[in-house]
Design brief:
D-Maltodextrin-Binding Protein, domain 2, 6-stranded mixed sheet, single chain, alpha/beta, 5-stranded mixed sheet, globular
Length: 324
Amino acid sequence: MKLKQIALAALMATASAASAEVKIALDSAPELENSGTYNWVQGFKGVLEDAGMDVREMPRDSVGNEAEKFDQLSTGLLELSLSDVRAIAQVDPFIYGLRLPYIFDDSAHMQRALAEGKIFDRVNEAVAGQDVMLLAIVPIGPSSGIITTDAAVRTPEDMADLRMRALDDAQIAMYKAWGTTGTIVPWGEVPAGLQTGVIDGYLNSPFIPIAFGQTDFVKNFSDSRTIIPIRAVIVSKMWYDGLSEDQRQVVNDGVAAGNAAAQAWLDKVSSAALTALEDKGVTVQRLTDEERGAFRKLSQQVYDSGLMPSEDVKVWTDLSSATR
């Protein structure tokens, strides 16, 4: 009798996972013109809906902060989230290789490295105990530049007196290598920090000040092209494993469609991103290759800082070289 009850419970869980709507926790406003991740969602969503699956978009922050979203994914209460890469890195820091400065030339280079290196297989083996899966890495927008309220930055020396918002210890190390100071500030506190002078700027895609309505107080963007700004597509393993074989294939096809949609958008808007900032009154510093090289050279210190095991750094640098 007990075995029958267990089998019935498992069957009900599988049926529930397969039939319930797919809730997607968004990370940005639902604006196709300004968000790489929302373009990804639309590509993914279209495939699922064409296959008869119900999909519901959950507005940014409506299901909680990053930690709360991860908990809901782990327990099967949420099916998919566009999350900070730190959510994965807290379990497997290897993924932080994606944030090594100047590791990739562009988003297409990053995707080649992820595929050739079988990074998703490696990461998902490491995070399986948390009942989550990493399905995709999605570019938020064109390569990150230096965003500031007042200072115009063309050289590392121009940043000497600035305090920059950092995502993590790796960015603090990068800012230190550049000769400036970094401090970790949650994204929700960044606008107030910029307006009160607690921080002078941050590193991100040129679309971010536009998408988040910051162009009234962000006045400079330096096109340093330091890091590919990304989000992690994380799903509930309980949900994914509960799908039928055909439904899992639909989800996998949806991931491919989402990746293609995000890349197509990025290819279209990359050349226009800086002009869009200028149209909003932001001064853009278009760095030469030589000027950008000064930041690249100093950034090499991050690779040797000990923040990542040297063997992990080598995996990423070898992958980068092999897929360039």
